[in-house]
Amino acid sequence: MLFSKQDLTREITFKTSRSGGKGGQNVNKVSSKVEINLNIHASALFNDEQKAILAEKLANRINSEGILQVITEEDRSQLRNKELGLEKLIILLRNALHKPKTRKATKPGKGVIEKRLKFKQATAIKKINRRRGDWE
Q1: Cα→Cα distances 121→66, 128, 136, Å
Q2: Distance between CA 107 and CA 49 in Å, rounded?
Q3: φ, ψ for residue 13 (rounded to 5)?
Q4: Residues 72, 88: contact at Cβ < 8 Å?
């Protein structure tokens, strides 16, 4: 896509909080949970068409203020969670903006048709040979 990690870091805001779950004292002391917020509508990285695509495809991740949120609390380190969250965000944006190739309809080749007809004929002959003959 047309954006880099550096460009994206200028547009996003980080919010940290204490992570839940296992971890002993680390959970009670360290704010390792990271929430990454990106305001898509106010972003200078995307044009209007891209903003509309992102708003449509990521509607379930965008809150009422139009902010895309990615929350990461996988690691015990806040820095590592920031990196993981940023990677998640980049993957999310790239997948949403990816345009699949349009399928071009093609006709089957002569060799394929011939092979299919030969197979059909062989099956028909096999079934004819299984029939009970008049000789019995």
Answers
A1: 63, 10, 26
A2: 35
A3: -125, 145
A4: yes
